[in-house]
Amino acid sequence: MDLIKVRKLTKDYVNEDVVTSVLHGMDFTIKQGEFVAIMGPSGSGKSTLMHILGFLDRPTSGTFEFEGTDTREFNDDELAKIRNGRIGFVFQSFNLLPRTTVLDNVKLPLTYSTKKNQEDLAKKALESVGLGHRLYFYTNQISGGEKQRVAIARALVNDPAVIFADEPTGNLDSKSGATVMHILQNLNKEGRTIILVTHEMDTAEHAERLIRLKDGQIVTDEKIKNRRLADPEGELKK
Amino acid sequence: MPNRLISEFKLIIKGMVARKGRSFLTILGIVIGVAGVIIIISLGAGAQSLVLSQVTKLGSNLLSIVPGKSNDDGPPASVYGITVTTLTTGDADSLRDRTRFPHLTGVTSSVQGSATVIWQNLNVDTNFEGVEADNFRIQNIELAAGRFMDVSDELSNVAVLGEDVREQLFGDSDPIGQVIKVKNIPLTVIGVAKPRGTVFFANEDDKVYVPLNIAQKQMLGISYVQAINIKIDSTDNVRLTIADVEQVLRENHGIKDASDDDFTVLNLADAIQLLTGVTDALTLFLTVMAGISLLVGGIGIMNIMLVTVAERTREIGLRKAVGATNKTVRNQFLLESGTLTFLGGMVGIIVGAGVSYLIAIGARFAGFEWAYVISPSSVLLAVGVSILTGVVFGLYPAFKAAKLDPIAALRYE
Questions:
Q1: CA distance, residue B402 to nearest chain A CA (Å)
Q2: Percent of chain A's residues with pLDDT above 90
Q3: Backbone angles phi, psi at B392, to 5 degrees
Q4: Which of A:177-196 have CB within 8 Å of B?
Q5: How far apart are CA A198 and CA A217, in angstroms?
Q6: Alpha-helix runs per DSSP H in B227-375
Q7: Which of A93, A169, B30, B205 is a Cys-bridge partner for A177, taking CB atoms 3.0 to 4.6 Å apart?
Q8: What is the dihedral of CA B48, B50, B53, B58, to 10 degrees?
Q9: Which residues in chain B are contacts of A112 at CB distance < 8 A?
Q10: Distances in whole angstroms, Cα of residue A49 to Cα of each of A37, A90, A197, B170
Q11: What is the mean pLDDT of residues A116-144?
């Protein structure tokens, strides 16, 4: 089943009458269960693309179908609802709430939903990233690698259709990075769709498919031949 | 829904605790404003209770005639203790004409002085007041023991004690029938008056009542009177009776024109009305001041909320990324500013109630019958106004937070 289908997707930014074109006409489809890396140098438009696919931003033109539905007509509240229920984000800088426990951080997306048993769902998500023993730690009491795993649990907790990981290992040492990539690969193995945004080839090679961008256009879109498998005990090669 | 409120509330409290100093300074304006409102309302109620207690003690139908003319320049000279001798018992007698004054229910002349009262080997410095039999009824004085003077006592050596004098001289023993000495004149105690407290700044219990004649002739050596107190049957007849009284006194004193009057009729009701008017005006003025301080406090809240929104830009971006709508972000910040000002309101109520209590204690210590009143309506008003201040002044920062672009917010450093 097609999860994401974009056709002739463009994005322009208008700033004081100066139009900057960031994406010029993209076409691709991502199926459910894929692990796709979007790679490109800075300024290639990969972040903008992720923001549009993650419903944080809207395209200027073209079509974007999500789970078979055209997303053009969605209003702000509907976009918020999709972000809440269907999308999970993992950011380079973790973005955890200060003065808040690990458990409450993971619960945060649930508080914007009407789901029941929020406590249990959050605990389960934390256990799945191996942090069942850190529930009541505050976010300033855990390591960087653990922080990113909390962020992954937070992205998972609403059982989303797709997880966007934006440079998830960018702020981590290579050992923590390997753990994070291992978790993402496992999640993919369990059937989750994962879209990894990175500018590093070594990180991108953990995915199954690689979309390379340059200057707002797709350069190549191919299956990764020698896929890397992250070793949770080893180090992430950079 | 309540789940999110609880978690947001937890965050707000933690944030406030983490920035104690700032939170305190933020709510200080609200604390001062609310405390001001509470104190002013409590003070107003206390002052009103003071005035009312005077009225109920004396009755609003009581008039006092004092010698000397009062005019636009000020009250009669006798008020300042200057001796004016124009008022006599004859004037009082002419007011006792029931056909001429059908609405007058009592008349008593009065003279006062201070003296040392002696009983056995004890003595106490106090005041004596020479009065006539009507005095006790007119002034609403109640009897604690024995009896009051009646008309037959006018020339007898008798005395009625105020509560303070009784306490100091006799303590636990029975004063009735005992002989005390005032200015070396032996007087038999026939009664004790119930405590009355302070009436118009004078302690009415620190006093001995003696017959007018004895006070005038034997203690003071004068033939004039210092005041004539009269009681009128109904408030409706006060104006009419004042006019009649003035006319008769002018006849007695051979005065043709009102501008030449050598006496003044003091109307208690008018005085109270004037006093209440002043209190009300003062309360209004102070309430406006308190309102201004709440306004200033509210601007402080707005200022600090704008800082908070800027500081937490990334958090707002994250919340939006995980599904917060503009509305929930807006409400979160309104909840925060409302919580801040609610807390300020609560502290303000405690401070205001405490200060009001101290004022009441001080006033009672000074001898006033001051009621300590914190009305539930003033507390509700204070809480309501403080929350409203938080919401109103939190609106602009909250809308600013709600409108933040999630991408820009997430990138914000």
A1: 12
A2: 82
A3: -65, -50
A4: none
A5: 16
A6: 238-253, 268-311, 313-321, 326-365
A7: A169
A8: -110
A9: 4, 319, 322-325, 328
A10: 12, 15, 10, 100
A11: 93
- DSSP assignment of B367-401 equals T--------HHHHHHHHHHHHHHHHHHHHHHHHHH
- CA A42, CA A62: separation in Å to the nearest integer? 23
Closest alpha carbon within chain B to A111: B4
CA distance B413 to B410: 8
Our CA-based measurement puts residue A7 at a distance from the nearest CA of chain B, in whole angstroms, of 23
With a threshold of 0.90, tell me whether the complex ipTM lies above it: yes
A91 touches chain B (CB under 8 A): yes
Q: Which residues contact A139 (CB under 8 A, 6 or more apart)?
A: A96, A97, A98, A100, A101, A102, A105, A147, A150
User: What is the domain partition of chain B in residue ranges?
Assistant: 2-55+273-411, 105-230
Tokens of B319: 């919340």
pLDDT single digits (tens) B67-122: 887 765 666 666 666 677 888 888 988 898 888 888 888 899 999 999 999 998 88
Question: Which range among A84-88, A234-238, B162-166 shows the weakest confidence by mean pLDDT?
Answer: A234-238
Nearest of A2, A155, A157 to residue A70 by alpha carbon: A2
User: Which residues does chain A have within 8 Å of residue B18's beta carbon, measured at their own beta carbons?
Assistant: 99
